[in-house]
Write a structure and sequence with these properties.
The complex is a heterodimer.
Chain A: H1 2-29, H2 34-38, H3 45-54, H4 61-73, H5 87-122, H6 127-141, H7 144-158, H8 174-208, H9 211-218, H10 223-260, H11 266-275, H12 279-307, H13 309-313
Chain B: H1 2-18, E1 28-33, H2 48-57, E2 62-64, E3 70-72, E4 75-80, E5 86-91, H3 105-117, E6 130-137, E7 140-145, H4 152-156, H5 172-177, E8 185-191, E9 195-200, E10 214-219, H6 223-232, E11 237-239, H7 246-251, E12 255-270, H8 285-293, H9 297-303, H10 334-343, E13 349-356, H11 359-374, E14 377-384, H12 386-395, E15 400-405, H13 411-419, H14 433-444, H15 448-465, E16 468-481, E17 484-485, E18 501-502
Parallel strand pairs in B: 1-10, 1-11, 13-14, 13-15
Antiparallel strand pairs in B: 2-3, 4-5, 5-7, 6-7, 8-9, 9-10, 11-16, 12-15, 12-16, 17-18
Helix pairs in contact in B: 8-10, 13-14, 14-15
Classes of the chains: A mainly alpha, B alpha+beta.
């Protein structure tokens, strides 16, 4: 297993370099100049020149990239062009927020998707199955932002049940923090849960039709036990794969969800940064995101091995 | 469906265990802002929204009243020398900064010198006319100018006149992350994109008039979500209500709608000489006039603006003493527009309109497109994001540009940099020696009586030449919970909390 982890980590380095180069290049292709955005309404020529020199924006792009890499190697992700705050500080501020959202959304997704998938596979062709499928289809087709705004109107404006937006740290007020995050996590988790349900259902169906399941049933094992112990465990491998891939979608979905619920997380940070051409922030956020994606996929690989003893030998 | 019910049960479960939503203590005012604040250092600040926070955090030397007249703030009185080159301020005594430092003439000098010399100061050009600052006595300061500058007092009522505690000036990063001023509220905390928290400064010289103890500014860019927060009680007031929501707020028994016509404007700027794209039929004055004749400003106001987009025919706001009330409005006249186009040698014309995309700007652009089509002008719309539009404006990569300006108290701020040949914001590169002369002269004259004729002449000339077609004055629509009392909107859009309280 260590071999697998070591190999994966080795591959991660060129991946990160490639991602950072790609983002650096793509950002420069965007029309718009961060310095003009920073110079504000007055657009003082002198200020513009000073800022350009200060942030090396007057250098050729490869030089700018090299300077950035040099700083990153020293643990310095640069400072936000717009607010003069170090990017590492921003990331440290925002990462826990998005992590909380992601974890809670994942819990919703797992809590909804997996039981629903198992139930609909086990009761294939019944009302339960159709019901779960309708849910899955609506979960996937209802846009995140729309569901978010509708929930705000119902739950917060009409019923005054939950805070409509914002963020409270769990350290300051644990329950209020959970409550504030409940709606956004549900919105984000519902779409993922729907996808997860579909994948769980199809994985379960293919396992349930396998010979050993019939044998297990023929031996007189209880149906529930067969489904959970025998079928589900084998269906888990494709589900873990999907989960790791869904993590990417989770991060992308967080961008929209954070906008709608004004959650000061990674998504909001990166959107604001892109609009302001705050290169250093975009670059830093993308780097950390890519890194976490790699880590999650590595975790999935490790999970395969734990779940499937056959892989341990190869 | 069953899963949905499980989710619902989960939600209600959490609610039941935690009880009712936590209430914020009384006399906390939560204000929803349209965008996140940029730098909290007045020297570096570059956005209108920053000034809304500064209005509670910092004091400037002077302030403006709702009628745009200057009123004492940190300076109690001021005089201009006969040659117009020295501006002397008498300072308020007994004022303290939020860290306990005393406010005096030395502090004023330290601040003004910093604004004038800090390398990336956005205040440098505003204070360009200042030669040096003299401390006359502990409570008298004289600003000596290179040449008379009529706009300086207005400049000092804004960020360039805001005083920071002198001990904090040495560290520019410190100013941006923890500004220490002399205003009624002191800085507590900022979480970027989330909130800025201020708390009442008990040592404030006018503290008795500020009943609110805590102010929380929350940037919520989506106007629908911002309003939902107000309606759900998570906010007490918000700025820049979307025009499409004006009626919703008016009909809500718990809310109050307050609006004021601002100092700024929205306009269409024509590229008449900035780079190769400046070489279009728009160089011909008749074509620009035809463009204006095809526009119905009242329709824009009613259809998109819900009645708050006060039609504008000049750069100056109606609240300004310099507003030229005699200047006639160009009303929609399609036949005349067609005739002018024909005289200029065009039956049909393609013009590209560039604009920073937002709900309102794209509505305005589409309406312009429809109106101009009737006059034979085919408007091609080119929406971009704000930063790209700004870039296009600078580089002359546009034919017509729908843009706006937040406005300044002094008429110079709304006219000079847009219309003089070398102006920073003269995106279309319109250049007219007469306009330059009038606007430069008006800068040096001492008072309204002497300056108004010059601005009248310039405004007339510009209205005739049409390098910029003004559409409507920037509105400042606020929505407030009925619990908020004593709020008066100012044309500069700032939220001044003197006398404002939250009941119940």
């Amino acid at each position: 297993m260590l071999q697998v982890i070591a190999n994966r980590l080795l591959v991660a380095v060129p991946t990160l370099i490639l991602v950072s180069m790609l983002i650096f290049g793509l950002q420069k292709l965007l029309p718009g100049d961060p310095v003009l955005a920073m110079a504000g309404e007055d657009q003082d020529a002198q200020v513009i020149a000073t800022l350009r020199a200060k942030y090396h924006l007057d250098e050729p792009v490869p030089v700018q990239y090299a300077l950035w890499v040099r700083d990153v190697a020293h643990g310095d992700l640069g400072t936000s062009l717009r607010t003069d705050v170090p990017v590492t500080t921003l990331i440290a501020q925002k990462l826990p927020v998005t992590l909380q959202l992601a974890v809670m959304a994942m819990l919703f997704a797992l809590g909804i998707g997996i039981p629903a998938g198992i139930v609909s596979a086990a009761y294939r062709g019944t009302a339960l199955d159709y019901g779960a499928n309708v849910f899955a289809l609506s979960g996937m087709s209802i846009p995140n932002f729309w569901l978010g705004i509708m929930l705000i109107f119902l739950v917060s404006v009409r019923w005054h049940l939950l805070p409509s937006s914002g963020y409270v740290s769990p350290i300051d007020d644990f329950w209020l923090s959970i409550k504030t995050m409940l709606m956004p996590a549900f919105v984000l988790g519902a779409a993922l849960g729907a996808q997860l349900m579909r994948h769980t259902r199809s994985a379960m169906l293919s396992v349930l039709s396998a010979d050993y399941i019939r044998t297990a049933r023929a031996k007189g094992l209880l149906r529930g036990r067969v489904i959970v112990r025998h079928a589900f465990r084998n269906a888990l491998i494709p589900i873990v794969t999907v989960l790791a891939l869904l993590f990417g979608e989770l991060l992308a979905g967080a961008v929209l969800t954070e906008q709608v619920f004004t959650i000061p997380g990674f998504g909001k940070l990166v959107v604001d940064a892109v609009f302001n051409r705050d290169y250093a922030v975009v670059q830093g956020v993308v780097l950390v995101t890519a890194l976490s994606f790699i880590v999650v996929n590595l975790a999935a690989d490790v999970l395969y091995i734990l779940l499937n003893p056959r892989l341990r030998r190869s | 469906m069953r899963t949905l019910m499980i989710a619902a049960a989960l939600m209600t479960g959490v609610l039941a265990t935690t009880g009712a939503m936590a209430q914020t203590p009384a006399q906390t005012l939560r204000i929803g802002l349209q965008e996140d604040v940029g730098s909290l250092d007045p020297a570096r600040s570059a956005q209108v929204v920053d000034r809304i926070v500064f209005a509670s955090l910092c004091n400037a030397l002077v302030d403006i009243g709702p009628d745009l007249k200057f009123v004492p703030m940190l300076a109690t009185s001021w005089t201009t020398s006969a040659d117009g080159k020295t501006l002397t301020f008498k300072l308020r005594q007994g004022v303290k900064f939020q860290d306990g430092e005393p406010f005096n003439a030395a502090a004023v000098k330290a601040n003004l010198d910093r604004y004038r010399t800090l390398p990336a100061s956005n205040r440098k050009s505003e204070l360009a006319s200042v030669d040096h600052v003299d401390v006359v006595d502990p409570y008298t300061v004289a600003i000596v100018l290179k040449a008379p500058d009529a706009a300086l007092l207005a400049t000092l009522s804004d960020r360039a006149g805001m005083m920071l505690a002198p001990n904090t000036l040495a560290d520019p990063a410190g100013v941006a992350t923890h500004p220490v001023c002399s205003g009624p509220y002191k800085f507590v905390q900022r979480v970027q994109n989330d909130r800025i928290v201020l708390e009442k400064f008990d040592g404030y010289w006018d503290a008795a008039h500020y009943p609110i103890q805590r102010v929380i500014f929350q940037p919520i860019p989506d106007s629908t979500v911002r309003l939902a927060n107000l309606r759900s009680g998570s906010l007490d007031m918000l700025e820049r209500l979307a025009p499409s929501d004006v009626n919703t707020v008016k009909q809500d028994p718990n809310l109050r709608f307050v609006s004021v016509s601002g100092l700024g404007f929205y306009d269409v700027t024509f590229n008449v000489g900035n780079g190769p794209r400046g070489n279009t039929p728009l160089k011909d004055k008749r074509v620009r006039e035809a463009f204006e004749l095809a526009i119905d400003r009242d329709a824009i106001n009613h259809v998109i603006g819900a009645g708050i987009f006060t039609p504008a025919n000049q750069a100056l706001p109606r609240s300004s003493p310099y507003y030229d009330a005699a200047l006639p409005f160009t009303h929609r006249d399609v036949a005349k527009a067609k005739a002018l186009l024909k005289a200029a040698g065009h039956e049909h014309l393609d013009i590209e309109l560039t604009f920073g995309n937002s709900t309102v700007s794209s509505q305005v652009a589409q309406m312009l497109q429809a109106m101009l089509a009737e006059a034979g002008i085919n408007l091609k719309l080119r929406p971009t994001d704000y930063a790209a539009a700004l870039n296009a404006a600078h580089n002359g990569d546009f034919e017509a540009l729908f843009t706006g300006w937040s406005g300044r108290v002094d008429p110079d701020g709304n006219l000079h940099q847009f219309n003089t040949c070398a102006g920073n914001l003269n995106y279309g590169h319109y250049c007219n020696a007469k306009v330059d002369r009038l606007l430069n002269d008006a800068r040096t004259k001492p008072d309204v009586a002497a300056r108004k004729p010059l601005y009248d002449a310039a405004v007339k000339l510009l209205a005739d030449e049409d390098p910029i077609v003004y559409l409507y004055a920037q509105p400042w629509p606020f929505a407030l919970s009925k619990k908020v009392q004593g709020f008066t909107p100012y044309p500069d859009g700032l939220i001044r909390l003197r006398g404002v309280s939250v009941k119940g």
